[in-house]
Automatic annotation (TrEMBL):
SMART domains: SR
Key words of the record: Disulfide bond, Glycoprotein, Receptor, Repeat, Signal
The protein, known as: Soluble scavenger receptor cysteine-rich domain-containing protein SSC5D
The SRCR domain, residue ranges: 23-123, 128-228, 233-333
Disulfide bonds: C48-C112, C61-C122, C92-C102, C153-C217, C166-C227, C197-C207, C258-C322, C271-C332, C302-C312
Region: Disordered, residue numbers: 1-22
Top-level division of the source organism's lineage: Eukaryota
InterPro entries membership: SJ_maturation_regulator, SRCR, SRCR-like_dom_sf
One Gene Ontology cellular component: membrane
Keyword Repeat annotated: yes
A biological process from GO: cell-cell junction maintenance
Subunit field text: Interacts with LGALS1 and laminin.
UniProt function note: Binds to extracellular matrix proteins. Binds to pathogen-associated molecular patterns (PAMPs) present on the cell walls of Gram-positive and Gram-negative bacteria and fungi, behaving as a pattern recognition receptor (PRR). Induces bacterial and fungal aggregation and subsequent inhibition of PAMP-induced cytokine release. Does not possess intrinsic bactericidal activity. May play a role in the innate defense and homeostasis of certain epithelial surfaces.
Amino acid sequence: MFRLVSGGEPLTGSGRDRSDSSLRLVNSRSHCAGRVEVLRNQLWGTVCDDSWDLQDAGVVCRQLGCGTALSAPRGARFGKGSDHIWLDNVNCTGTEVALSDCSARPWGVNNCTHREDASVVCSEVAQLRLVNSPSRCAGRVEVLHNQLWGTVCDDSWDLQDAGVVCRQLGCGTALSAPGGAHFGQGSDRIWLDDVNCTGTEGALSDCRARPWGDNNCNHREDAGVVCSEVAQLQLVNGPSRCAGRVEVLHNQQWGTVCDDSWDLQDAGVICRQLGCGTALSAPGGARFGRGSDRIWLDNVNCKGTEVALSNCRARPWGENDCTHGEDAGVACSGNLHPSRHCGWCRDRAGKLSGETQLSCLSQC
């Protein structure tokens, strides 16, 4: 029975009882992912995505025995329904046993279209993980098949494929899709090869690929992914996302890095973390302009092998003896759009050091 409440009060009457109501996820290969549909008066209908969030999705996943919620896609991610829109403004606290215990508008009352149909992706559908890195949102891609974890070959592996993985795991967007066993070699089966996602799929299992276990690869070709949720790092005020002032996110606030002891090894970690190739230079002295917020890091000292800047040694967060005139910068080799990059370099001729200018123009 759906006992939906409005304004925190139980709604009685109107035929609301659990005997004629149910719940399902449709339009995907798994019963643990898809468009949310509820049954009312023997008619299935959708849920509007107004205020739909991970807490609401979590209740659905738990109710269906599908684990936890990885994401709560909106905007008819799993296609538009065609019948009634039964629910709107669902508001779960996250502790409810069933969606029926959550607050919502009365049955059928909504201001939505099917373009706003709500969806859910639960953990039990994933059969997917990223391993061998400090974060669950970066690492070697592994998939579960026949109760055995195995890797994905990097043949044709690209940012679209990585994007599907990141979205499926609730890790944001894909920053890079490294191949060549960037996150180490697996040791079990190689399950997938020639993966070819359009980028709109709800799960990696929805992408085209060779049959399970059919490949011409070895583990030196294991595919990896770095998603945006792991980064908490950006390069700003430069010619591309791969060059600029270094900024890091801490306590929900962006801040800069001081250039004390800043060098090419530190810059190299950043370039690799952002999927931007190798470091060309590590300019200090606010070469890419001065920041205006906190100075989060000082005396950064990377060995050069770290997966993320957060793994490098440094003074405690926010502890420094710097000004924004010492903000650190980075110029990486990858993803520098030639026309924008070269124009930016030439415009700053005479303002960059000889080394940085040479490195800059060498990419043109």
